[in-house]
Amino acid sequence: MKTTPTSFSTEPALTDEGVLASALDCLQNHVSIDMQGACSLKTLFMVLLRAASRADSIEHTVQRLTGVPTGNDLRYHLDKLNDMDSLETQLNVALHHQLPSKVINHRHKLSIDLHLIPYYGHPSAQEAPYIYRSQAKAGTTSFFAYATIYLIRRHHRVTLAIHPVRNDETLVSSITHLLSRLTPLKVKIQSLFLDRGFYSVPVIRWLKALQIPFIMPAIIRGKTGGTRQFCRGRTRYWTSYQMKSQEYGDVDFQLAVVCSYAKGARKKYGVEYLLYVVYRVKVALGGVRDQYRYRFGIETSYRIKNHGRIRTTTKNPVLRLLFVALAFILVNIWIFLLWTKVSATRRGGRWVFDNLFPLKTLLEFISQGVERLFPPKREICLPANL
């Protein structure tokens, strides 16, 4: 059981200047933007970090700070980012910039999912390739989609890669893009957890061909046949199933049938059946559901990422990727600083004082660091010639 410390050292383990310096170092080393005039790359990144730390827009940020370039000046330089592939590579390297040492060259549990951000309006020629169609949510069926791969390990829950999904891209291609980003880290897959949206013949066949251990929920289909035929009885069991597709052929796999009692959850009662595709994962039948619950950590990463995402109305898919990836980078920096700075070695494992340094504190430190260099305005003046 972790106890709350009763006394603290006089020497700070971390300062707001140090947090800002870590974020700037990551961005300046890995993200390049062609700059001209009086606006420097460091200033541009500080404005972006201030906006991200407040989940604010760039326009409002430059209005609040003194000594920073205008919003038009910043947008002029940001609009130079027009190469999606190049920016994606740079941002993924930035995600790897500060990772705890135990992440690299180790075997881990990983999760892959699609993060959808609603899109409204009629896409232009530049936007159209990146408008992903999915089930209706938030009043639209069009989204900017980002595939991410997430590490599931205590005190090391970081995003290892992000990939903007094109509308003509297959799920197999998206997974391939993500897994290729793990090569520099020498990360091996202990088990991979996927959402039911990946339940398809091509994905299962491809993962089996690569012999990647994985668990994913199966969709219950059919009236009496299909996977619905396994929704019977009151005990869990293993079975085999062959899924067929007119377009992609068929694939065989092992299916875990798990029974549970809803007990009023989601206004459901009685026996509830959960089916899981399990391949090369060493897990007892009774532990399949608990193992798969690890996947929900990636859903949490999407929620906490929103605390540090720049608000924008731009529909430019390249800038959208920058703002979303920057939020994930800040979360990774937070995890790294927690593990290396706000922790102590002790017998039985490292002691991480996560209650002393929540994510909101990191964001406040970044905001304070920027405001020390560019003080916020404290008054409003009306135009002189009225």
Return the string of H and E elements: HHHHHEEEEHEHEEEEHHHEEH
Question: What percentage of the residues does DSSP assign to strands (E)?
Answer: 15-25%
Q: Roughly how many Å is the radius of gyration?
A: 24 Å
Number of separate helices = 11
Mean pLDDT: 93
- Low-pLDDT parts are none
- Number-wise, the strands total 11
Biggest sheet architecture = 9 strands, mixed
Query: What is the terminal separation in angstroms?
Result: 67 Å
Shape: globular
Helix and strand composition category:
alpha+beta
Work out the helicity level.
25-40%
3D architecture notes:
The chain is an alpha+beta fold. Helix content is 33%, strand content 22%. It is built from eleven helices and eleven strands. The chain has helices at residues 16-30, 41-53, 58-64, 71-78, 84-95, 171-180, 201-209, 288-292, 296-305, 317-340, 359-373, and strands at residues 107-118, 131-137, 140-152, 159-164, 188-194, 214-217, 237-245, 249-261, 271-279, 343-344, 351-352. The strands form two sheets. Strands 1, 2, 3, 4, 5, 6, 7, 8 and 9 form a nine-stranded mixed β-sheet that branches. A two-stranded antiparallel ribbon has the order 10-11. The chain starts with 15 loop residues before the first helix and ends in a 13-residue tail after the last helix. The relative contact order is 0.17. The mean pLDDT is 93.
